[in-house]
């Protein structure tokens, strides 16, 4: 069948040879961070001829009529998808959708998604958003969006489907660790408005400040500065980056720069020398003394990982929690003509020590898995000096009234006020703290650091 198309192949040969030399300089690729030897001019030419050959066979022999432009677009989409999870070819419609996303209002769910092990995975739901309220969790694998399976779907395509008019519903079918069956979660889209920084005091830890950064928008550095200034008696900081999917690079750099005065915070390295950049710390207004504990988990990604990893590399903080997501690559949008574009991975981020985040993540100094804090009450609450006298009085009451001790009934924990309590926007109560052992561990570690810091000359 290929022989039938020889005349057509010859017609396209000149343009193929031209393309081989025009694009030859872009032929080097990387696979799983391993350098692959670049193709020789002969190998490039053979590859381009093979592509043209197959394209012409499809046009001539395929059972249905096909459009060449559509075929090439599909081939490009497949090509980009197989480079990595974040690179993609945007046709006219996709490029237009990208422009719409950057202006105006649109309805969303409030989740960040990524590809992990080839499947669409929730990086994190943002606090207070429809997805967060509906019960979506970091690490959930999205199997279907409404009736559309996500296998083979790109990140951009999935995001496009999940966005829509506010107050419209969508159903996500998810697979969750330790759940025997897939779960269906119905979510109502809404306008996503996020407060990115929360500064709070904690009951029982009067000299500690809890700063929760939910995402890296353009106000993060300002918000953190204001939280520190508002609590100027603070002797230690817990920086909570759990379920923070990232955002603006300059805000991540600026946040680290508040606590270090020199060195490369993060660098990006690519094939092109124009993508090789270092972002350095500055000495102005840097706090080098206040102890810091950073909280992370599997929902911490991108900018969050840069902050946690950089502070860890500078020995400026203790990182507590669970291993982060592992998103450390740089994408740019390159217009192709007027109406199309490539979103292409052009570099990777590297932390001060030279390690990469991409597919590796940041490993905590102290691993703590999320759970409630369980306490075992001391059966004898009284001091020894009071015990004998107390028991004597209790026995006297029982003998006098001929009463029997009250039998304590089991309490339904699902109906207690404790489980229905909400987190105060300025303060974290002890009952809330006891539901979060990662935060409790971070605060106990911070307390030790504060004590050690006081002991320094």
Describe this structure in words.
- There is one protein chain.
- With 457 residues, this protein is an alpha+beta fold.
- It folds into three domains: 65 residues, no CATH class; 87 residues, Pdz3 Domain (Roll), CATH 2.30.42.10; 171 residues, 2-enoyl-CoA Hydratase, Chain A, domain 1 (Alpha-Beta Complex), CATH 3.90.226.10.
- It contains 13 helices and 22 strands.
- A seven-stranded mixed β-sheet has the order 21-18-17-14-13-12-22, with helices on both faces. Strands 3, 15, 16, 19 and 20 form a five-stranded antiparallel β-sheet that branches. Strands 8-7-9-10 form a four-stranded antiparallel β-sheet.
- β1 and β2 form a beta hairpin.
Compile the SSE list and pairings:
Layout: H1 6-22, E1 30-31, E2 34-35, H2 41-61, H3 68-81, E3 88-90, H4 92-101, E4 107-108, E5 111-116, E6 119-125, H5 130-134, E7 141-145, E8 148-149, H6 155-162, E9 169-175, E10 183-188, E11 190-191, E12 197-202, E13 205-213, H7 220-230, E14 236-240, H8 249-257, E15 264-270, E16 277-280, E17 292-296, H9 303-313, E18 318-321, E19 329-336, E20 340-350, E21 366-367, H10 384-401, H11 417-420, E22 427-428, H12 430-433, H13 437-454
Parallel strand pairs: 12-22, 13-14, 14-17, 17-18, 18-21
Antiparallel strand pairs: 1-2, 3-20, 4-11, 5-6, 7-8, 7-9, 9-10, 12-13, 15-16, 15-20, 19-20
Helix pairs in contact: 1-2, 8-9
- How large, in whole angstroms, is the Cα Rg? 29 Å
**Nearest-integer average pLDDT:** 81
The major beta sheet can be summarized as: 7 strands, mixed
For the largest beta sheet, what order do the strands appear in spatially? Answer: 21-18-17-14-13-12-22
User: How many separate domains make up the residues?
Assistant: 3
Looking at CATH, the homologous superfamily of the largest domain is 2-enoyl-CoA Hydratase, Chain A, domain 1
Q: Distance between the terminal alpha carbons, to the nearest Å?
A: 84 Å
Q: What percent of residues are in strands?
A: 15-25%
CATH C-level class of the largest domain: Alpha Beta
Helix share, percent: 25-40%
CATH fold annotation of the largest domain: 2-enoyl-CoA Hydratase, Chain A, domain 1
Question: Which structural class should the secondary elements be placed in?
Answer: alpha+beta
Low-pLDDT stretches are: 1-33, 406-423
Count of DSSP E strands?
22
CATH architecture assignment name of the largest domain = Alpha-Beta Complex
**Helical run tally:** 13
Shape: globular
